[in-house]
Design brief:
- The structure is a single chain.
- By secondary structure, the chain is mainly β.
- Helix content is 12%, strand content 40%.
- The strands form three sheets. A seven-stranded mixed sheet has the order 3-4-11-10-9-8-12. It has a three-stranded antiparallel sheet with strand order 5-7-6.
- The longest helix has 10 residues.
Length: 176
C-alpha cells in the first residue's frame, strides 16, 4: 500500500519513503553452508507515522489520517523518525532482533545524528509469500521509547536465522 501525503497547515508531509519495495537479501556462505538469497516484500502500516487516541482524547479533524480500516492521529515526530525505516530494513543482515509479545520481532537501538543511543521500537512480522514471491516483511509499528524496553538477559536472534526458519517452515521459538 502506498500512503498518501498528509497536509497540515499548508505543508505536505510526504510518505513516499514508506512505499512498499522489494529487497533481495543475500546471506553469504558460512561454515560449509551455501550462499542463500531471499526476496523480501517490504511494506509498512500507518502505525509507523500515526498514533491512536489516548484515553479520553478525541482525534482532532486536522490531524486525522485514515485508511480503509481505521482513523489515527498523524504524529510529526513519528513521521520524521519513519525516515530511518527503509535503511534499517536494507541493513537487516547486520542486525539482531528481540521477540515481541505477539509473535513479532523488534529492533531498538539506533545512534542518532549527535552520536547518542536511542531506542526506536520497530515491530515487524515475517511470513512466507510463496515459492517465487519470497517473504512478506510487514512493519506493524515504529516509535521512539525513552529507555531500553527489553530484558537484558533475553538473547536476541539474528535476522538471517529468522528468515531461514520462516522460509523452511521451522518457525522461530519465542524467547522465554
Amino acid at each position: 500500500m502506498k500512503w498518501r501525503a498528509f497536509r497540515y497547515q499548508e505543508t505536505d508531509y510526504d510518505l513516499g519513503h514508506l512505499d512498499p519495495f522489494e529487497y533481495d537479501l543475500v546471506v553469504p556462505a558460512k561454515d560449509g553452508k551455501p550462499e542463500r538469497s531471499y526476496r523480501l516484500n517490504v511494506s509498512y502500516s500507518m502505525h509507523c507515522f500515526t498514533r491512536g487516541a489516548r484515553k479520553g482524547e478525541s482525534i482532532p479533524a486536522e490531524l486525522a489520517y485514515r485508511d480503509s480500516r481505521e482513523t489515527r492521529i498523524f504524529e510529526f515526530d513519528r513521521h520524521a523518525q519513519s525516515k530511518f525505516l527503509p535503511e534499517i530494513f536494507r541493513s537487516l543482515a547486520d542486525r539482531k532482533f528481540h521477540h515481541g509479545a505477539h509473535g513479532n520481532f523488534y529492533v531498538f537501538e539506533i545512534i542518532d545524528s549527535t552520536g547518542t543511543k536511542q531506542y526506536y521500537s520497530v515491530f515487524f512480522t515475517l511470513s512466507k509469500a510463496g515459492k517465487k514471491a519470497g517473504l512478506n516483511l510487514f512493519i506493524t509499528t515504529a516509535h521512539m521509547r525513552p529507555e531500553q524496553p527489553y530484558a537484558k538477559n533475553v538473547k536476541p536472534v539474528r535476522f538471517n536465522v529468522i528468515v531461514h526458519n520462516i522460509w523452511t517452515g521451522k518457525g522461530v521459538k519465542p524467547a522465554p
